Amino acid sequence: MNEAKYFYLNFIKKEGIARDVFTFYFDRVKRRSVGKLNFLAGQYVHIYLPVINEKSRGNSRMFTIASSPLEKDYISIVTKKGNSIFKKALFNLKPKTSVKFYGPSGSLVIDEAKKSSYVFLAPGIGITPFRSIIKYVSQKDLNIPIVLFASFSKKEEVLFSTELTSISKTYPNIKIVYALNRINEELIKKYVRNINKHLYYIVGPALAIADLEEVVSGMGVESWKIFLEDFEGY
Fold this sequence. Notes:
alpha/beta, about 35% strand
């Protein structure tokens, strides 16, 4: 794991990628930090903004890095629009603004040395760390079996489908399954064989991942093979 530290990156731009969802890009080249900015696919950072009237929660929030470690020019995060003071400050960032970060943090990563296979379960915006991991695996041409299940309420909310589907067509070890309803046992068993053979990573809002944990446990998967990361509200 890379040691967490404080560093500063310049904001580049934001791009809308789905309804009310944006990717924010920060410059990794013109950075103000000690040493190299290294992170593992699937990790997250804390972003600090000079917001006011946020005494209860402070001026930082956690964001998963959506970009791959091999996308050297920038790191990116993905988030929805919101009405909080922090979100408004984030969405009002101007290009070249220097932004304070702390990280990387998080253990929801893959082990390249082990011959593990993975099932990723992503309700909604929980897909962001899996975009980082899948992009990285494809860039390094790693023979790591991955099945991603991503669920969204509506078509206009779907994230990364063109990119990830394209990757899956090139790399047969990667399967991508999108659903416009909840991920359930029937759907998982349709695409995953030997249910108890794999490691299960579940990322998203707390209630959604609790439901999915129950689904996976109910299929007989041992608890030590199930890893959770919930996205805090902000």
